Amino acid sequence: MAYExxxxxxxxxxxxxxxxxxLKFYKTIWQLYDKTPESAxxxxxxxxxxxxxxxxxxLSVLGVDASEExxxxxxxxxxxxxxxxxxIRQRMQRLRLPQPVDFAVCCLDGINYLTDxxxxxxxxxxxxxxxxxxxxxxxxxxxxxxxRGLDGQIFLDEDDEVYCVWRADFDEESRIxxxxxxxxxxxxxxxxxxxxxxxxxxxxxxxxIAWLAEAGFTHIxxxxxxxxxxxxxxEQRIFFAAEKP
Length: 245
What we know:
27% of the residues lie in helices and 35% in strands. With 245 residues, the protein is an alpha/beta fold. It has 2 domains: 7-143 and 203-243, Vaccinia Virus protein VP39 (Rossmann fold, 3-Layer(aba) Sandwich); 146-200, S-adenosyl-L-methionine-dependent methyltransferases (N-terminal domain of TfIIb), CATH 2.20.25.
């Protein structure tokens, strides 16, 4: 299962993720759509880094993730805040909120983790139902171009307390990129080894736009990586924005 062993070390291994820049880009999209949200859903929130930033903007934030281990890290990160996010465990395709929100976001290719297109379509519909009228949904994906390019690649992340090696394999028939991870975490004088498998589906831009429209969204737009320009031919990360009328 993904993010069980990795959860405790996730933030240490991902210090290069530009959460502040992501928030700045979301604000740019809010301006493009003339939105001033007061509440937000952080879908596939992980350890809650973006949830905390959104809460820091004064929004009422609900963080949702399928991993109990990641949510434990998120809860600890948010404890003591004046305006803490509220975290719940749900799968995206089973999303059901206690009340609708003004803004929904799914960052860092969370949508790619839906390896069954039927689950992706269902998630679009559930996010739509979870938004107030006029609400905005923003998400990003690893492009099919990027996932294909990862095939056969080996990567290494490390610091003094954790060592992670991962290998990527892309299957053209299934359109799934699999990441086999070996995680070594320091436990006193010893190292504990764990293994995880992460899988991402290579969605196309046209597919996602069609499913957003099918769910009822309008004013659907796609963007390059943190850019208001349309995605380039070999764009590695594509952002989407869609409005609930």
